[in-house]
Every structure is written in structure tokens, then in C-alpha cells.
Amino acid sequence: MGGRLLPRRPGLNGYTEEDDPFSSHRVGYDSRLQTKEPLALKTEHQGPKDAVVLEGYRNDMDNGFEGERPLYNPANTTRPQSSMHLNVNDPIQVHLLVETALGDSREYEILAPEEVDDLKKEIQALSQRIDQTRQNLVIQSKYRDAANSMAKLYSSPDGKKKNGIMHSRTDSVKEADLERIQSEKKCEALANELWSLEKKLMVPQNKLLKHTAGILQMTHKGPKNAPKGTTAQTGGIPGSPESIYTYHNARTSVEPISDEIVFDERSYYRTADRLDAFSDFSGRDSFGPPPKSQAREQMQMIAKTEQTLESLNKRLRDVIVKANPRRERTYSLPPLAKTNAQGRSTGPGETLQNHLEYMERSIQTIDQEHGLAAKYQQESERVAEERIEELNREVRGLLLPYDPYHPEPPVLTGTGLNQQLLYFQDSIGAVEMELSSAVKKGNKVTDGAEMEKMIMGLWDIILSGEQDIRRRKQERRVARATQGLSPDEDDSPDDSPDLVESFSLQAFSTKVQMLYTQATRLKDQKKVLQRQIKQQRELNSKSDATKDAEMQAKVEELERVKDLLTRTEADADRTREAHSKAIEELEGLQSSGASAAEHEAATQKIRYLEDQLQELQDDHKITSAEIQSQVAESETKIAGLTVQLKAAETAIKDKEQEVDRVKVEVARLQTEVTLARAELDGAYGSRAERAAEAAAMSPVATEQVQTLKKELEETITEYEAMTKASIEWEKERDKMEEAIDKLRDEKENLETQLNEEKVRCMGMKSPSTETPGNTSTSTMVLRNEFKKMMRDTRAENTKALRAEQAERRKLEDELRALKRLHGPGKSGLSQSVRTPS
């Protein structure tokens, strides 16, 4: 099986490589030995001794159960977590591995989905218990090391020769030895418990791994079509590397899955109604209703989509409730489809929109929780940095009498804990050096008065440092109260009294252990905060880049429309001026009785101007089509904003209903508290205990009300922003309609002038060509030209309409993509992560 069966990241099985029972750093392997030979495992009735188990975990406790590095093969880009000796480009090697895996997993048991879920839940529960036990073991080992150090200090060779003061501290020496023994026993008990849990974890993990291998072996598919003229190979092994991709699966209980029954995931992003009356789901033009078989397939696809969305919504609700258990009762259930006795949907498509709205609302809820988590992380990081800075000042106060040139702690930056932790580690090293030198001096001095004086000095420095910390906390509380801010939890008064505590070696040891515990806990908090901040920054960078690109595209599109309108108006003005000049020249020629040649030249010029006017009309039509496309796009955006507005109103109604339910719950709790108080007045228990229990229920309800009020305010703010955006789009639409009306009026005026000019030309009679035949010929030519112009106009209109429809489909697809990426009301919530409840 190898030393590494699972990757070092959470997978579908719910555990990581650190929980791998087959890894080389688990119990059952001595991590101190290079050979890593397995220790003798005991049976359930006769397990290993506690001391042996604890010794096996020694290296794991020293490195914080970090485990070994996973395998990494840079040559394998598709799966880098593989051995360096594996060559994925070698077909023979890959074929042998596949055949070996299929043969080894042939007899493995295959479980039902319910059994797999039970195994995963059991593995998750055991993994959580194992992680908690590991943390407790690491902390208890630190206590044990501190107790051993104090016991060595008491049992020094020179200390036994002292009399007087040191003779009266025999009880303290006994207490230190007793504490050391108790710490050893606790460590051994935790190590034995961890060993038992890991042993239990091996059983469900082994079953789940065998089930996974068995189901993959059973559903492994060979080639779809065997080559003609080939015979079955012996044992299912191909005869050459080229025939690797032509073998068949020996386990024929499952046929290869056909592409026809695979669920089309693209249906997730289709709406129930057709977006265009001229196209069906396949994108091909059709006229008339679809056939019955196609309609039935579409209804089946819609029903499957509803079932998939219902399952996804249930999983989303489970994620929300798991992250915040307080939403178990308040968060609504996903909509359910109506089914018949056979479990089939009776009305496909009825709950599709409700499922999409529920999914959108769930994503918004997750984003809100993420925002609260980000604020909590920033505040926790700031408080942790202040706390470490206080500890650094306290440790510096300890070192100043012995090292006057010890540097000052780093200033608070609010960006991280690295500098403070490095300073704290250096200070701890200096303290250890000072303690070592003090122990050496104490061994050389015959009188114990100097050692006692030194420890008393350290004790006074610790007490003065604690008083200084309490004084600074009081100043911060006063400053926050002056600014009108809520009091900080870390600035609250300490549980320890302000009275000066009497000195004793036991008290001094407790103080040192407390400082070390605080440093260890803050270091763990630093790792968690760094990981969460990195995830939040990646989220923010993706969201900001998408929004900036979308805004830039909209601005460029608006500028292009404005330039197009300006050019069209300028061309129309130039054409009107040229037409006016031609009419004036024609009237001058008629009034002065010009010759037939001049009249013919004027007629040709008029035709030339008519051609230019026709070209201008064509350009004007194209421009009108583009403007209509822009108006349709604006209408589409307005419709999208309207849908988002309705979703926001629905969310506000849900929040109001949730607030009402919370109010009713608060009233019910108050009534229950009143009744309970009345019943407990004559029953057992003190009044102080009853008051404490009643007070513990009120803050929970108040906190829920405050949280709901905050969510309602955020929803109202988003609703106002969407309303403003809708009004702006409406104004822009009005401007576009005014521009279209203006261009339409100009077009009609130009057509009227052109018709008048044509009639005027038809009424003119030349002296040399005044015959009835020529008049009828001119009329026929004009009629043919008019028919040709109408045909061209219809063709252009049809082409513009098709272009507009294609553009509208493209914009609708982009709008759906934007909805899936962002959704309504995510302007300020995409930068957040969930708060731990």
C-alpha cells in the first residue's frame, strides 16, 4: 500500500494526510528510527504500555504533529502528488499499474450510499476527536517540561545542603515532584487515548478505501469499439503497448455509460421559458411548435434540473447551518416540488424559479457571514498583536535588571504578528539564558540568600508588569468610552484580584507556565489568521478585476454610441445643405429659361444628389438599427435590475418575518423565564443561581435581534442602491428614445423633400423631348426604381432585425453569466468570509 495513501488536503472522505492511519508518523511506527520498522501492535485486551505509547509520539509532539512532506513530482503536471520514479508518459508502466489495481480490488466489498455516508460521518467525528486530543497532548507536554524544569531546580545538589529558609521549603519540593508525576500521568493517558482513537479510525478508513477501489474497479470502462480482426488477449493483457487503449474490462456487470443519458450541466443556466421566439434550445431557427417527443424530453430535462437544484439547495442550507448552528430554526427550507405516488414531478418547471431565488439568497447569506468573519479576523489579529506586545514589555521588564541594553519591543503595526513573535522568542531565549546563569551561580554560592533575593526580584518585576498592563487596559477602556465605542473583550478587567500576591515558588512556577501557554496560543492564532487573510485577499482580487472589466466595457460602448450619433447628424446636415443648393440652382435655371443642356446637367446633378441621399438613408437605417439594439440592451439591463429589485424585496420580507419570529421567540422566552422564576421561588436552589440562569438566556436573544437588525439594514442599503441604478437606467433609456425620435423625424423630412423633388422633376417638360411616350417611359423608370428601393429596404430591415436578435441573444448570455458570477447586491459582501459561531 505504501507510506502515503491520502493527499495532504481535505478530500471527499473528510480527512487529511495528518489523519492517515497508514502514514509513517502514526502510532505503530517508531518515528525516531530511520528504518521505520513497525512496533509490535497489541490486541484490544493487551495494548502497549502508556510510557511506550508516549515515547512513540515524542517526535510528533516536538514538531506539532506536522507530519512528513507529501510526494511531489514536477514532471507529472496533471497529478504532481506522485512518486518521482513514476513516468506517466510510459504506457507500459501505466498499463501495469492499472491492471494491478484492478486485480487487487476485484474482491473488495462495495457499500451502499447510506453506509458510505455513515462511514464518512464516523471518520469525521473520530478525526475531530483526534485533533483535539493532539492539541491537548502538545499543551500537556509543555506543562510536563516546565514541571520537570522546576523539579530539577528544587532538587539541585547545592540546594539539598541549604538550611534555614530552604529547609522550610521541603513541602514546596514535594509539591513540585507531585506535579511532575501528575503531568507525566496525564501525558501518558492522553497518548494512550490518541493511540486508541487512531486505531479505531483505521477500521472505517480501510472500509471506505476498499469501497472506493472496488466501485472504481467495477465501473472501469475499456474502449467503446474493439478493433476489427482482433482476438481476445490472454488474461486481458494486451500484446503490445499500442494495444493498451483497446482492452476490455473483465468485470462486465456494468455497461459503459452512454452519452445520451449523461445529465447536461448546461441546463443549470437555462431558464424555464424560451428567451427568443425564433430559436429553440438547440439554437436553430424554427417556425411552429416543437414535436411532442422534443417537448417531452424538455420537460424531463426541466424535472431533472429541479431535482438537482433541490439537492444543491439542501446542501447549501446544510453548509449554512453547519457554519452557524443558530440558523437551524430560523433559516427556511428549500422549496419542494409536487410529486405523485411514484415520486415523479407532477408540474415540471413550477418550482424552478423558486429554487434559483433560494440559491441566490443562500449565496448572499454566505457572503454576509463571510463579511462578519473578516471583521472578526481583523479584530482578533489586532488584539493578538496588542497582547503579544504587552507580554513582550512584561518579559523586557523581567530582563532589564540583568540586561539594561535589552532592546524595546517592536511598535504595533496592525499588519501581522511576525515581529512581535520573533521578539518574544528572542526574549524567551534571553530569559532561559538568565535562568541558566542564575542556576549556575546558585550552585556555586554556599548561601541561598542571593538566589532567594534574585527570585524575589523577578517576582516583583512580574507583579509590576501585571499592574502596568492593568493600568493600560483601564486607559484604553476610558478612551473607547470617550469615543463612544463599545468596550473590547480583551480590555475587560482580569479575573485575578488587584491585591499583591504573596511570593512562593509554586506561584512563581504558575506565572511562568501561564506566560508560556499564552505565547503558544497566540502563535496558533497567528497561523489561523494568516491562512484566512490569504484566502480573503484572493477572493477580493478576483471580484475587483471582474467588476473593473465590466465597467470599462460599458463605458466604451456608451462612447461608441455617442460618436455614431454625432457622425450621423453631421452627414444629415451636409446632405440637406447640398439638396437645398440643388433646388435653388434648378429654380434659377427654370426662371432664366436656360437651355436644354443646362437643364439636363441639373437633372443629372439631382440624380447624383438623390443617390447620395439614398446612401445617407441606408447609413441612417443602420445607425437606427444599432441605436435600437442599444435600447434593447438597456431594456434588458432594466429588466435584470427589476428582477434583482424583486429579489431584494423578497429578502426584506423574509428578514421582517424573521425579526417577527425572533420577537415572538423573545416574548416566549420571557414568559418561560417568568413562569420558571415563579416555580423556583418555592423550590430548591439559591436566588443567585436562578438569576444567573435567567441572565444567560437574555443576551442570546438580544444578540440574535441585533444580528437580524444589522442584516436588515444591509438589505435596505442594497435595495436603495438598486433603486438608484434603476432610475439611472430609466433616464438613459428616455435619452435614447428622444434621440431615436429626432432621427426618425429628420428621416421623414428628408423623404418628404426627396418625393417633392421627384414630383417636380416629373412635372418639368423639355422643349426637345416633349412627347407622351417619353413621359410614360420616365414614369415606368421611376416606378421600377421605387420597387427596387422598397426591395432593398425590406432586405436591409430583415438583415438589421436578424443582427439585432443575435446581439440580443449575446447580451442575454452575458447577463446570465454576470448573474452567476455576482448575483444582486454583492457590491460590498464579496470580500468577506464566514464568522465562526
Instruction: Report the C-alpha radius of gyration, rounded.
Output: 42 Å
The share of residues in helices is 55-70%
Give the low-confidence spans.
1-45, 159-168, 223-289, 765-775, 824-837
- Counting H and I runs of at least 4 residues, what is the number of helices? 14
Residue-averaged pLDDT: 69
Kindly estimate the percentage of residues that lie in beta strands according to DSSP: under 5%
Order of helices and strands: HHHHHHHHHHHHHH
Tell how many strands the DSSP assignment holds: 0
Distance between the termini: 40 Å
Envelope shape = elongated
What class would the helix/strand composition place it in? mainly alpha
Largest sheet: none
Any overview of this molecule?
GO terms for molecular function: DNA binding. Residues 1-31, 219-241, 478-499, 817-837 are annotated as: Disordered. It holds the Pfam family Uds1. With 837 residues, this protein is an all-alpha fold. Among the domains are: 17-222, no CATH class; 446-503; 578-821. 67% of the residues lie in helices and 0% in strands. The protein has helices at 50-56, 58-62, 91-104, 113-154, 157-161, 170-218, 292-323, 352-399, 418-444, 449-482, 505-592, 596-681, 687-763, 772-821. Helix 8 crosses helix 11 and helix 12 packs parallel to helix 14 (772-821). It is elongated.
